[in-house]
Amino acid sequence: MPLIEVTDLRKSYGSRVAVHGVSFTVERGEIFGILGTNGAGKTTTVECLQGLRRADGGTISVLGLDPVADRAALTRRVGVQLQESRLPAKLRVREALELFASFYPDPADVDVLLDRLGLREHACRSFGKLSGGQKQRVSVALALVGQPELAILDELTTGLDPHARRETWELVEGIRATGVTVLLVTHFMDEAERLCDRVAIFDAGRVVATGTPGGLRQSVNASTLDDAFVSLTRSAR
Amino acid sequence: MTAFAKITATETKLFLRSPFMAVAGLLLPAVLLLAIGAIPGMTKPSEVTGGYRFIDAWVPSLIVMSLAMLALQSIPAAVAAYREQGVLRRLATTPVHPANLLGAQLLIHVVVALAGIGLVLGLADAVYDVPLPKHPVSFALTLVLGTVSMFALGLVAAAVARTARAAGAIAMVAFVPAMFFGGVYLPRPLLPEVVRRIGDYVPPGSQSLQDAWVGTGVQPLQLVVLAAFAVTGTALAARLFRWE
């Protein structure tokens, strides 16, 4: 059984249709990319997966659970990094990890996590004083502190410099190596090509293509995923 | 430690790391009490204040000030900031509901407000011989209703504001009247009769506090109005509050 199964998901805000019949599956142990430009319906889809929003139609199964009806059970098994979510500026890194660890029945060891994410030397620094890359590492650490089976990472490297982006990519590969399935939401094609086993390309609330980055390139004779993305989303317009 | 206890401990640390509000709510009323008391004439009975000393008439206003700063300035900004920063939303994806964070904030602010009020009462008694409230039960009842109504109004502001800045601005709508009618800007005995009569019914009920204090007996209608503010405000805040 797939870890995530989305069938004909629909969601509107008033008269604006955000998600227009989206279907895809994510297998256990893969890094699955949700690709698309801003407003393509990526974040709405992910919010429905997390149970933060109630879908208007279609079915969603995450770890065999209904995100809305079984939200309590789901939150214990899914770790989340949200786009544009900050921590209080004066909260220290270790305090944040210890706080979030107290939310879960079987949390990761905070010291082990600090080492793993290279945050040991920053453990006593305030969140507000960290660099962009360090902040992202903290938010990844918070997503992992509950020892989740699935990690949902939304726009993880937006706003990071090239070095910090590459470090973050290594981190994501490290997460998968520990057996955690990763759902990566991004609009960076190089990131998806480097990290993702499979991707779903979103455009205007629909999935226009699903497959491996290599397979999608070949399907439209493109040399990069970037070119493939442009060609696939253009033909859908 | 339960998640709520852990959140409360962490929030307390954060509260103390930005001590401006803590200091303002806890110490400013006490400092003002000492400053006003040091002015000659403030501690002598006066006809303007109906035979009481000015300082006797002003202590309830200091309670108003403590509650107004914490309930109508500090907590709306803090809670709206958590929404603005996405902290409430982030918590919603964990097994712990963001209501725990709101509860921790309320607990901390109420404790600081009561500590500030306790400090004013203690100092007024010790330094200026302002006797403790003559009707402690009705004083406590008024204080509970006043505290609930003020924090409910503060949370209504936090509920409808998208940003911390907006929360502060919205809360001003309640903050300024509470301070004005509560006699913080101008002592209540000096306010025009009509303003004073309106002020009798404005949270957190400084006239009722005063009446309970000097023992003339609290007007039931004033308490009923205060209770109505508390109930309506709480219901409105609960209805309007968005966790995201």
From TrEMBL, chain A:
Record's bilayer topology term: Peripheral membrane protein
GO molecular function term, any single one: ATP binding
CDD domains: ABC_DR_subfamily_A
Pfam families, per the entry: ABC_tran
Compartment annotation: Cell membrane
Source species, domain of life: Bacteria
InterPro entries, per the entry: AAA+_ATPase, ABC_transporter-like_ATP-bd, ABC_transporter-like_CS, ABC_transporter_ATP-binding, P-loop_NTPase
Keyword Transmembrane helix: no
Alphabetized SUPFAM superfamilies for the sequence: P-loop containing nucleoside triphosphate hydrolases
The protein's name: ABC transporter ATP-binding protein
Highest classification ranks of the organism: Bacteria, Bacillati, Actinomycetota, Actinomycetes, Pseudonocardiales
TrEMBL record, chain B:
Record flagged with keyword Transport: yes
Regions that span the bilayer: 20-42, 62-82, 102-124, 136-160, 167-186, 221-241
Top-rank taxon: Bacteria
Protein's organism: Amycolatopsis melonis
Family: Belongs to the ABC-2 integral membrane protein family.
Record keyword Zinc present: no
Matches recorded under Pfam families: ABC2_membrane
Protein name from the UniProt record: Transport permease protein
Keywords: Cell membrane, Membrane, Transmembrane, Transmembrane helix, Transport
PROSITE patterns, per database record: ABC_TM2
Alphabetical list of InterPro entries matching this protein: ABC-2_transporter, ABC2_TM, ABC2_TM_bact-type
Residue ranges of every copy of the ABC transmembrane type-2 domain listed in the record: 20-244
Membrane topology: Multi-pass membrane protein
Subcellular location, record wording: Cell membrane; Membrane
